[in-house]
TrEMBL record:
Keywords: Metal-binding, Zinc, Zinc-finger. The gene is LOC104238021. InterPro entries: Znf_SWIM. Residues 568-605 form the SWIM-type domain. This is Uncharacterized protein LOC104238021. GO terms for molecular function: zinc ion binding.
């Protein structure tokens, strides 16, 4: 076989880690130049930097590789597509070579101009004749692939002896023991601290103190010098954002010099607007780390009233459920075509690093968002976040209405209207009666009619077709928005807001530094030097979790919450049972969700006094819709039952037989009467178990090729979205072979108001996908995996009863209670008892709402055709799996409904 045919036939290797070294690649030997045998491998060209970083982080011999030589074919020059043609040639050499400045060492003839110093301070520690190097070639035949030729992979000199690192005895006591440069993490730390205003002396003082505490230097980072930090500070001080007087030219120059920070760029043209997508390497790592099987949220149109171009932020949620920006998109407008292009570029960049990366859900905050494009690119469910509208309503209500009682009544009415619209019970007609009933609040009504009435149709349609994000998500997004405003819009010279190059430079340097330091574990060492922009505490949701129940007192339509900083101060929350409650604290008066409101809601839900949130209601409704599959198409239900049995088996293996008592629930479906709504409530105090099972059931639909009820409906051929609950009888279902691969995404997608853990099946979830199931290996500790991670919000099902809003016909729907086995349920159904003679255990608890909204809902609600839940197809599952050994009290029905 010819040499190039042999090379091009090699597989392209793409390790899933963020960085990788030569030890993780399979090397092949082919005939090289002058009868040599070369060690070669093919990797994606976009991952060459990852290979260089991974190879530099050699534990046995830490180093850094620099570009010794580079040749690049200009893009404007035409060329023949030759099989051995090269677009780019890069020679990477260990930074301890190739010259040898040690005594008796050899310096290449091209470097004879070097004049030795009287005191060779540091020179013997930097150039010690290391021969380790490799070549990267980008071929014309395969431009997306990099050919790596790595023959000299040992860090030795011309004599074959170690010349640096721990193996070189002569390097002991010098900097040649470690890498020649500081690590990327320390470099980012120094730059970030300088950008936020910490002085050079403070940085060095804290650094030296930490080195002394550990007993002296043990790596290259411990040898950080005052000179290096001072040089970085001087470079920052002398830099300028205005690279050219023309803003467009200045942006182009910035993009050219920051290629690694740009994932999408289109300059102004006659047909397309300016679009710039910014993402640093750190942001990409956070997207891969927290976005895989997690949520990606959109904060659109930030700074519309102040900046030349608005900012579209994409954020993920870390382990504390705080928002981290992973990309910024700057453009004068956000059209559907533009969105599809930059989203695909972002998705391709992530998949280049991790081909197995997959989102569980995408959260939008704009009803006009291009939902079909999001589904097409990310292949995930889409949810909608209502925080922007709630924030605007709350803020203007406080500003334009002086009477707090009226504010509370209006906010409660608006909250009920949104709740019914999300359930599908209401339409925009509700708001017409609202404007008639509260005509006395003239100022707020004028604002509402002018600003929101024209948009109600669009928002109503979005709320009816897309699931609603939880209050925890709203709190995190609201906090991120305020942090971005505090850190970005703080310039004294207002004219800079009119330049796009200032915005790009500020985001890439100062703002990025703030968010990087938020995740930096040692930031508390610099706490005394924090400025206001540094302030990155807990979100309102997290603060509410720290308020004890003893600090809450409920009196009728009021609740009083003790201030945690000033114990002598009480905050009054009006209408505490509503998600749109009004609090008198300063943070709430600015329109924000405060911890006192959230704590009041949690307190009342723990007492069983109020219903679950809208998000949880939609979640349970999706579960019930799954159970109502037609009898002749029971594949989805069969798979759901098998998943439930698998979860029960895992529990038995961890907790012993009979562990199903923790998941015992009585899920009963009762009819909903027109004008009212029913709720899904918990039959036990264990509210943390159900989402783990039903998360997997729910994921079955959004992983189906045609049924996507959780993401707001299926996509028709013309690109439109159908109803939230599509017909299933004609829907081909694409099933996974591993139940965990189904539940991995859904558990993150439906982390509703703190019910589910942020990482269901926790740390091992990533490696379990696509593997054989093992009842002992893959499940994490039961202390953490089946515990509510933040101890908050919805009791999915309350203590005594459960109901749902599936039908409006008066006939009851039935699912076998937890105390009965599957066989008993099937026998009852065969005797026609399931639907006729068995009454629900507890009648649903109905929440009485205001008569005005009841009448409006009655006039706008259409009856939904009811269909009985048939459990006969469950017998198909019984043919293929052994369930006789499961304890009767922990039967398959209790697992399914737990």
């Amino acid at each position: 076989m010819a040499r190039w045919d042999q090379i091009l036939s090699l597989p392209v290797q793409n390790p899933p880690t963020l960085e990788f070294s030569s030890a993780e690649l399979v090397w092949s030997k082919v005939e090289g130049w002058r009868d040599n045998i070369d060690r070669v491998a093919l990797i994606p060209f976009a991952r060459v930097d990852d290979f260089v970083r991974g190879e530099s982080a050699n534990k046995e011999c830490p180093t850094r590789f620099h570009v010794e030589a580079r040749r690049r074919r200009p893009a404007e020059i035409t060329y023949k597509p030759k099989v051995d043609g090269i677009l780019e040639y890069i020679l990477y050499w260990c930074s301890f070579g190739p010259d040898d400045h040690r005594k008796g060492g050899i310096v290449r003839p091209s470097r004879t101009t070097y004049v030795p110093k009287k005191k060779p301070a540091g020179r013997p520690n930097t150039k010690r004749g290391c021969t380790c190097h490799f070549i990267v070639k980008r071929l014309i035949a395969e431009p997306s692939v990099a050919l790596i030729i790595y023959n000299q992979d040992k860090h030795i000199d011309k004599n074959g002896l170690p010349c640096h690192g721990p193996q070189d005895k002569k390097a002991a006591g010098t900097r040649a023991m470690y890498a020649p440069y500081i690590s990327e993490d320390l470099r980012l730390r120094v730059l970030s601290l300088l950008y936020v205003g910490v002085s050079v002396e403070t940085i060095m003082q804290r650094h030296n103190e930490s080195v002394e505490r550990q007993g002296g230097p043990c790596n290259r980072d411990d040898l950080l010098t005052h000179r290096y930090v001072r040089r970085q500070e001087r470079s920052i001080r002398r830099s300028t954002y205005e690279l050219d007087s023309d803003d467009a030219v200045s942006i182009s120059m910035w993009v050219e010099s920051h290629q690694n920070h740009v994932f999408f760029y289109e300059n102004f043209s006659d047909s397309d607007p300016f679009v710039l997508g910014i993402q640093t390497e750190w942001q990409l790592q956070q997207l891969i780390r927290f976005g895989n099987h997690g949520l990606l949220a959109s904060d659109s149109k930030f700074g519309t009233n102040k900046l030349k171009y608005p900012i579209h932020s994409l954020v993920v949620f870390n382990s504390d459920n705080k928002a981290i920006p992973v990309a910024w998109i700057i453009a004068p407008r956000f059209s559907s075509g533009d969105t599809l292009r930059w989203m695909r570029a972002l998705y391709n960049r992530v998949h280049m690093k991790d081909p197995k990366w997959k989102l569980a859900g995408f959260i939008v905050d704009d009803p006009s968002a291009d939902v079909p494009a999001i589904r097409e690119v990310f292949q995930c469910s889409v949810l909608i976040c209502f925080w922007r509208v709630r924030h605007a309503w709350h803020k203007n209500l406080i500003k334009k209405c002086s009477e707090m009682e009226t504010c509370a009544a209006i906010a409660k009415w608006l909250g009920q209207a949104v709740h019914h619209i999300c359930k599908g019970d209401g339409t925009a007609v509700l708001f017409e009666e609202f404007m008639e009933d509260f005509v006395d609040a003239a100022d707020f009504m004028d604002y509402f009619k002018a600003t929101w009435y024209p948009r109600l149709g669009l928002w109503t349609s979005a709320l009816r077709t897309l699931p609603l994000a939880s209050q925890e998500t709203c709190s995190a997004m609201e906090y991120y928005h305020n942090q971005l405003k505090l850190r970005l819009l703080n310039e004294k010279e207002l004219s800079v807001y009119e330049r796009a190059d200032w915005l790009v430079d500020k985001l890439d340097t100062t703002v990025h530094s703030y968010f990087w330091l938020d995740e930096y574990s040692g930031k508390d060492e610099f706490a005394r030097y924090w400025k206001n922009e540094w302030m990155s505490g807990l979100t309102a949701w997290q603060k509410s979790l720290q308020i004890p129940d003893s600090d809450v007192l409920v009196e009728g339509d009021y609740s009083k919450v003790v201030d945690q900083e000033d114990r002598h101060q009480l905050h009054v929350v009006r209408s505490p049972a509503s998600e749109y409650a009004i609090c008198d604290c300063n943070w709430a008066k600015m329109g924000n969700l405060c911890e006192h409101t959230l704590k009041s809601i949690k307190y009342l839900r723990d007492k069983g006094s109020i219903t679950p949130s809208t998000s949880m209601f939609q979640y349970m409704q999706a579960l019930v819709d799954m159970l109502r599959c037609p009898p002749y198409d029971s594949l989805i239900r069969d798979h759901a039952l098998s998943l439930a049995v698998w979860v029960q088996t895992q529990l038995d293996a961890q907790l012993g037989p009979g562990s199903g008592q923790f998941m015992r629930q009585g899920l009963q479906l009762t009819a909903a009467t027109p004008g009212h709504y029913t709720e899904v409530v918990n039959a036990s105090n264990r509210r943390d178990t159900l989402p783990y099972v039903v998360g997997g059931l729910t994921e079955l639909q959004h992983s189906s090729s045609a049924a996507d009820n959780l993401s707001g409906g299926q996509i028709d051929q013309d690109g439109t979205c159908a109803d939230r609950v599509p017909a299933v009888e004609n829907s081909p279902v694409e099933m996974e072979t591993s139940p965990l691969s189904i539940s991995a995404c859904a558990t993150q997608l439906f982390s509703l108001d703190g019910v589910t853990s942020a990482d269901v099946f926790a740390e091992n979830g990533g490696v379990m996908v696509g593997e054989e199931l093992d009842t002992t290996k893959n499940l994490p500790s039961t202390d953490t995996s089946f515990a509510n991670s933040n101890g908050f919000e919805d009791d999915v099902l309350n203590k005594a009863d459960c109901a749902t809003m599936v039908d409006e016909q008066p006939q009851p729907l039935y699912v076998a209670p937890a105390e009965k086995s599957l066989d008993q349920c099937l026998r009852n159904q065969q005797n026609d008892l399931c639907c006729n003679s068995i009454e629900p255990e507890i009648s649903p608890r109905l929440q009485n709402v205001d008569n005005r909204i009841d009448n409006a809902i009655s006039s706008t609600t259409k009856p939904v055709e009811s269909s009985l839940v048939n459990m006969a197809e469950a017998s198909e599952v019984e043919k293929h799996m052994r369930i006789d050994s499961i304890d009767e009290n922990a039967g398959i029905t209790s697992v399914l409904t737990a």
